[in-house]
Design a protein that fits this description.
Layout lengths: L1 H15 L6 E5 L11 E7 L17 E7 L2 E7 L10 H14 L3 E10 L9 E9 L27 H13 L4 E8 L8 H9 L4 E3 L3 H9 L4 E10 L10 H25 L1
Parallel strand pairs: 1-4, 1-5, 5-9, 6-7, 7-8
Antiparallel strand pairs: 2-3, 3-4, 5-8, 6-9
Helix pairs in contact: 1-2, 2-5, 3-6
Amino acid sequence: MMKKQLEESVAYLQSKGFDQPEIGIVLGTGLGKMIDEIRDPIEAHYNHIPFFPLATVEFHAGKLVYGSIEGKKVVMMQGRFHLYEGYDLLDITYPIRVMHQLGIKKLFISNAAGAINLNFKKGDMMLLEDHINLQGGSPLAFKNVAAFGERFADMSEPYDVPMRLKLEEIALKHGISLKKGVYASVVGPQLETKAEYRMLKIIGADAVGMSTVPEVIVANHLGLPIVAVSVLTDECDPDNLSPVDIAEIIAIAEKTEPKMVQLFRELIKHL
């Protein structure tokens, strides 16, 4: 069933001119400006792509954009899907499968996250070295998953080491602070309690968010190398916790975004 749906989605995008992209990019909350880097963009709104979910979060645009950055063909998701919108894990990861079928060989992911590690501050960026899945399920838990890849997907190194090292090198060269750490993915949409922040720290999380892990699991299943960066938009100190301000979170993401765009653009150039 899913194979037929993927074929229809891909055929539609190919008819629009989406031709063999090399790199897929998923843009997180408040991180949509990288679209402006694309030359000769072709857009496909999610509601026009057969079998694609629809973005329901107000600060997610809801379109796939194809074009070139630094001479490489890219396809970019402006607006992703989350469990907290009522989607299931197959819906959330469907676009990754579509981009893979279109031909991508690498996947870049960005997200906005809260800093659990108190050495990290608002406006910092964190390179994901590993993750903890607290979303209560797997996007690979369906009957015919073996038709798409090994059922028992290996997750010993979910984030590509060569791309991580190259990003660190780029950050150092340009004087950009890039932390490293473990990302915990929760369901949301409510923010965490003080006790939950304490738990996350105890189990080894450096940052927490509500996305990314399902996409990373599917990308690993498909054999796609991944690099992921979190923009840290708030500090989750359970001993000094203020009520969350979503407007401030978006503002911090937007302020930090140019550095993330610079990192991704340079990485694309070096691939």
